[in-house]
């Protein structure tokens, strides 16, 4: 399992995986794609990641691999990059379209730009403390999507086939249960 490391909170994901016994390389080059069984796409800035993926000639290759079944765990900006439709994005911003959802960038508004809350997650016995930072809001969910958690009626953790996406940052708390869940979902 690798962590896409063009920009954003990739170090924290790597640390969470390390704590679970998974040594995940930082992925920055297309040559590394062949070795991947799964990829984490971190939070950060989706416009910048989209730009870097495109200018480094990685976007189309990665999109093809994800469409071909490469499991992805996308968090926050990573969720935006996986979404089928992005609202309030930059006009040149691209997304892989691997998860059939519509997301609005910074969809929680200015006042609620960043907040923390406990959420119930399907399959977990105890609540998960979720950190939202200028998070995308999910505005549409396609028919084949499994919603694993909601916050105030809005889905915040979803699965579509081999892709899991979260609008919050599970890597920024010491709780590794969602990384563990992703690992189990692909094994
Ligand atoms: N608002 C950011 C974006 O559009 C996402 C924020 C985050 O990843 N914390 O990419």
What can you see in these coordinates?
The protein is of the alpha/beta class and 187 residues long. The chain has one domain: 3-Layer(aba) Sandwich (Rossmann fold). It is 24% helix and 30% strand. The strands form three sheets. The chain has a seven-stranded mixed beta sheet. A three-stranded mixed beta sheet has the order 5-6-9. Strands 7-8 form a two-stranded antiparallel sheet. The chain is globular, with a radius of gyration of 15 Å. Bound molecules: glutamine. Glutamine (GLN) binds next to helix 4.
Mind sketching the topology for me?
Layout (H helix, E strand, L loop, with lengths): L1 E3 L5 H10 L6 E2 L11 E3 L4 H10 L3 H9 L4 E4 L1 H6 E5 L11 E6 L9 E6 L8 E6 L3 E5 L4 E6 L2 E7 L2 E4 L10 H10 L1
This protein binds glutamine.
With strands numbered from the N-terminus, the spatial order across the biggest sheet is 2-1-3-4-12-11-10
Low-confidence segments:
none
- What's the tally of helices? 5
Q: Return the structural class.
A: alpha/beta
Order of helices and strands: EHEEHHEHEEEEEEEEH
CATH homologous superfamily annotation: Class I glutamine amidotransferase (GATase) domain
CATH class: Alpha Beta
CATH fold title: Rossmann fold
What distance separates the N and C termini? 11 Å
């Amino acid at each position: 399992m690798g962590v896409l490391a063009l920009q954003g909170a990739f170090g924290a994901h790597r640390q969470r995986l390390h704590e679970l016994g998974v040594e995940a390389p930082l992925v920055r080059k297309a040559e590394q794609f062949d070795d991947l069984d799964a990829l984490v796409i971190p939070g950060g800035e989706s416009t910048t990641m989209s730009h870097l993926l495109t200018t480094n000639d990685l976007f189309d290759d990665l999109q093809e691999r994800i469409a071909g079944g490469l499991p992805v765990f996308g968090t926050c900006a990573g969720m935006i990059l996986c979404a089928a439709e992005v609202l309030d994005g930059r006009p040149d911003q691209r997304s892989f379209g691997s998860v059939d959802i519509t997301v609005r960038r910074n969809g929680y508004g200015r006042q609620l730009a960043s907040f923390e809350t406990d959420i119930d997650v399907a399959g977990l016995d105890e609540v998960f403390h979720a950190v939202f930072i200028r998070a995308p809001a999910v505005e549409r969910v396609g028919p084949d999507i499994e919603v694993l958690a909601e916050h105030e009626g809005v889905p915040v953790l979803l699965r579509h086939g081999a892709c899991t996406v979260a609008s919050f940052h599970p890597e920024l708390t010491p709780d590794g249960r969602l990384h563990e869940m992703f690992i189990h979902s692909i094994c």
